[in-house]
Design brief:
CATH superfamily: Ribonuclease Z/Hydroxyacylglutathione hydrolase-like
Order of helices and strands: EHEEEEEHEHEEEEEEHEHE
Strand content: 25-35%
CATH class: Alpha Beta
Number of domains: 1
Number of helices: 5
Strand order of the largest sheet: 1-2-3-4-5-6-7-8
Length: about 250
């Protein structure tokens, strides 16, 4: 499928006012059936997705990471995904601000324990959600470099693959370029992290991208990693690389 990508202002797609400096640019992607999926990187690892009236939030965080972002001004979420329990991914206050009675929260088991609820997904867990055109798969996310395993041990944290009307989105969470990425196929849009020593170096990110082969790549969770280093590592890959939001 040839991706037809249009950029829209946040006021057109995501009607949120006064959310502060963390508001992301917004990109819109067509599904195979001609529907639209809007994606915004709010800041760091917080990703917002809009699909056919569904509001999806992944790792919404305020506090020290995005204090300028008032989550209460965002539309209430239908679905919230949390990759793991680190403070830059899990924020109970942000989740509370986004929840309504019908909101479903999916997370790794540790987060569900801390939150006192939600649906726990271990690596490999799959949920065909209540809409037949939406599915969620939890995939591994962990460190492999000696000395870094303590940050994200194997088997604890999640990445997610969302399928929305046939469009496949991979949000990697905190991970290095792990062997399990070879099984992540047919990805249209990927979010891959790049802030050593916690996640990947630019070279690791480029290696992971060349294995996954997404049509569009959003490097995220970038910390102090210069965009030019990431872009240089991906030069010639044939992947549409897009930088959005604050690192």
């Amino acid at each position: 499928m040839k991706m037809q990508i249009a950029s829209l202002s946040a006021t057109l797609l995501f009607a949120v006012s006064a959310v502060g400096a963390g508001t992301s640019c917004t990109d819109v992607f067509p599904t195979p059936g001609g529907k639209s999926v809007g994606i915004g990187l709010v800041k760091h690892a917080s990703v917002r997705i809009r699909y056919e009236g569904l509001e999806i939030q992944i790792d919404p965080v305020g506090r020290a990471i995005a204090p300028e972002t008032d989550w209460a001004l965002f539309p209430k979420a239908d679905l919230i995904l949390v990759t793991h329990e680190h403070f830059d991914h899990f924020d109970p206050a942000a989740i509370a601000a986004l929840r309504k009675e019908e909101t479903e929260v999916f997370a790794n088991p540790a987060v569900c324990g801390l939150l006192g609820g939600g649906v726990a997904l271990a690596n490999g867990g799959t949920v065909p959600w209540w809409r037949e055109d939406v599915s969620i798969e939890a995939v591994p996310a962990y460190n492999t470099t000696p000395g870094r395993e303590k940050f994200h041990p194997k088997g604890r944290d999640n990445g997610y693959v969302l399928t929305l009307g046939g469009l496949r989105i991979y949000v990697a969470g905190d991970t290095e370029d792990i062997p399990e990425m070879a099984a992540i196929r047919d990805i249209d849009i990927a979010f891959l992290p790049c802030n050593q020593p916690y996640t990947m170096t630019p070279a690791q990110l480029a290696g992971a991208a060349k294995v996954i082969r997404p049509k569009v790549l959003f490097p995220y969770h970038r910390g102090d990693t210069p965009e030019k280093e990431i872009a240089a590592a991906l030069d010639g890959s044939g992947i549409d690389v897009r930088f959005r939001g604050a690192p």
